[in-house]
Amino acid sequence: MALLRRPSTFRRYLVAAFLSALTVYLLTQTQPNTTPWRLRQSANKHPIDGLVQAAEKEFAAKLSRETHTLSAAAAAYRKRRGRHPPPGFDIWYEFATENNALIVEDFWDQIYHDLEPFWGVNPAQIRKDAREFEMRIEIRNGKASTSSDWFWTLIWLDMIQTIEHLLPDMDLALNAMDEPRVVVPWEEMDVHLKRAVKTKKLANPRTVVSEFSNWREEQREEPVVEWEHDKHYWAIARRGCPPKSLARQAELITDFDKPPFIASTSSLVHMQDGYVANYTLSTDFCHQPDLQALEGVFVEPISTSATSTLLPLFGGSKLSVNNDILLPAPIYWKEEERFIGAEGASIPWSDKHPSALWRGVATGGRNRATNWRAFQRHRFVAMNNATMLSLAASRPTTHPPPNFALPAADVLNQYNLPPLTPTLNHERGGDEEDDLPTWLSKTTDIAFTDLMCANEGFGPSCDYTAPFFAPAEGVPMAAQFRHNLPVKATLWREWHDARLVAWRHFVPMDGRFGDWWGILRTDRVAERIALGGREWAGRVLRKEDMAVYVLRLLLEYARVGEERREVMGWVGI
Ligand SMILES: *[C@@H]1O[C@H](CO)[C@@H](O)[C@H](O)[C@H]1NC(C)=O
Ligand SMILES: *[C@@H]1O[C@H](CO)[C@@H](O)[C@H](O)[C@H]1NC(C)=O
Asked: Under a CB-based contact definition with an 8 Å cutoff, are residues 472 and 449 in contact?
């Protein structure tokens, strides 16, 4: 795993560039007398203005659902979940309020998304699968322990130990790999979810059982789960999509040694006027079959070990189709210097650099001479390389390799950027005549720190990509905060997704990056989003918030593994 970049202005703001995500820090110009850049079609309203307004509304609606008492929190729970809260809900509430956590029921949506299918699985099966998994954390008599010495597991153990005294006995199976593991075919998931919905009810409070069972050690057998090691993850992942989805129907691409096809923005339902309008939908790849040749994880992950069995397996991040259960990723809990740099947080907005910065390793999967053109980080670095763009513009047919994945002309047009020609007037102050390459060289600082080569054992150099990319020095996280608006393009889902609002707390970017140049030129909302995101991170992404999340998650997990789960709950009020 490389490139886990943990921003720190956003002290604990986890705009994770986890696995294959890509987070760029951008600060757009704030010079006076700058005419805001406009779309050709409408002189007054930029599409981003409408998206920001919608985000403000969504955020205000979320905030209005904050609850301030235990009974209001329980009522919100029953309304949203259709069940009684789990036993121990009052203890959870007390822990949350003692830790000054904001209580908005929506914030825990991910937990219910992850656990709901298990209501359709026999509880004995859930317990069995957990206790037989090779890597586990066990909780007994208010103490968490593990026999593993894997560093991720030890960090998760440290996290769970902060709440161990509040937890019933249980076994947690943990995924030690970078990649998520569970992809239940859509058709089977449908069966689980239909069974689960039948268990959804508010049992009569007089018959509700409000204590967890006493723990009984059960016999351990050899696990019978089948693991698949197909290197082509798209072939595995797409079975989690609906049968009629484009991902299921599209032809399987196996030749990655050519320029990938890039879908046009107008054909993508998560986009509006060229920008991401529905962030959650943008991370769902079932309607985006072209991503099979645009994302390293689909082309060839570092490792694959997947199953179609619905195992209760905990992990730090996953794709929309994965059925792993999300915990906060270990790097968020362990405040490693590589990922934080709180001193950068205090830099005032006006002192920041008006340019975009990205540093990272050429990972996102295992790139090879025959597939690197299908990797998103390579594409992003290439499209920000002024030299490469100039070459592509002047000799588009004689210099094909670097030209491999530039956005199509229609995408360029959408951003008022003509196809790559040396004369580009981007309507800034009127007298600016910079062409795209010149403009990019002034406004971006984007490079790999390591070419991560399959041929040379992940060394810094690489015979097949060296002609196209020059590695640069890394930039410490604290220094990255001299650029401060996070722009995030990812397919990965994480524990905090339900508490962040795209265009309010960060700028979402499409996985094809066709919106990148338009985003780069948007100075109208940058300060508001950057400062709003920073403030919000300090409120809802603290380590305390992770502990509150995990406590709620594990109470729910313990209940779903109980024989009497359908009549268990907290009905104090
Ligand atoms: C985003 O798309 C999802 C899935 O289609 C939908 O359920 C959700 O309501 C959409 N969100 C917004 C804000 O439009
Ligand atoms: C930019 O592209 C040129 C030409 O392909 C290449 O030689 C150079 O190494 C690239 N620079 C970076 C920073 O990747």
From this structure: yes
The tokens describing 11, both together, are 């002290």
Report pLDDT digits (tens) over 56-85.
999 999 999 999 999 999 999 999 999 999
Residue 386 CA, ligand 2 centroid: distance in Å: 8
Q: Which of 500, 50, 107, 496 is nearest to 277 (CA)?
A: 50
The dihedrals phi and psi of 233, each to the nearest 5 degrees, come to: -70, -30
Q: Where are the alpha helices (DSSP H) in 20-138?
A: 47-64, 70-81, 89-98, 109-115, 123-132
Give me 299's structure tokens: 């082309």
Q: Name the residue with the closest Cα to ligand 2, atom 4.
A: 388
Helix 543-560 and helix 151-161, axial crossing angle in degrees, nearest 10:
90
Per-residue model confidence (pLDDT) at position 565: 98
Query: Secondary structure of the chain: what % helix, strand, coil (to 5)?
Result: 40, 10, 50
Q: Which of 336, 334, 305, 338 shows the shortest CA–CA distance to 322?
A: 305
| The two structure tokens encoding residue 233 | 């993850």
Rounded to two decimals, the pTM is 0.90
Q: What are phi and psi of 17, to 5 degrees?
A: -95, 70
> Most distant CA pair in the chain: distance in Å?
79
Domain boundaries defined on the chain: 2-60+338-529
Contact 570, 90 (CB under 8 A): yes
From the CA of 447, give the closest atom in ligand 2: 13
Of how many residues is the chain composed? 573
Is 358 near ligand 2, meaning CB less than 6 Å away? Answer: no
pLDDT tens for each residue of 311-349: 999 999 999 999 999 999 998 998 776 666 656 667 888
Ligand 1 centre and the CA of 558: distance in Å? 31
Quote the CA–CA distance of 225 and 349 in Å, as a whole number: 53
Rounded to the nearest angstrom, the distance between the alpha carbon of 48 and the centre of ligand 2 is 31
CA distance 158 to 165: 13
pLDDT bin (cut points 50, 70, 90) of residue 260 is: confident
293 CA from centroid of ligand 1 (Å): 25
Q: Please name which of 263, 359, 365 lies closest in space to residue 319, comparing C-alpha atoms.
A: 365
385 lines ligand 2 (CB under 6 A): yes
Phi-psi map region of 393: left, alpha, beta (phi>0 left; psi -120 to 50 alpha) = alpha
* Closest ligand 2 atom to 470 CA: 9
| d(C-alpha 515, C-alpha 529), whole Å | 17
CB of 186 closer than 8 Å to CB of 243: yes
Q: Judging by DSSP bridges, how do beta strands 313-315 and 275-276 pair with one another? A: unpaired
- Tell me if residue 210 falls in helix, strand or coil: coil
Q: Which residues of 429-448 are buried (b: 16+ CB within 10 A; e: fewer)?
A: eeeeebbbbbbbbebbbbbb
**CA atoms of 419 and 406, how far apart (whole Å):** 10
Q: Which residues does 535 contact at the CB level (< 8 Å), separation at least 6?
A: none
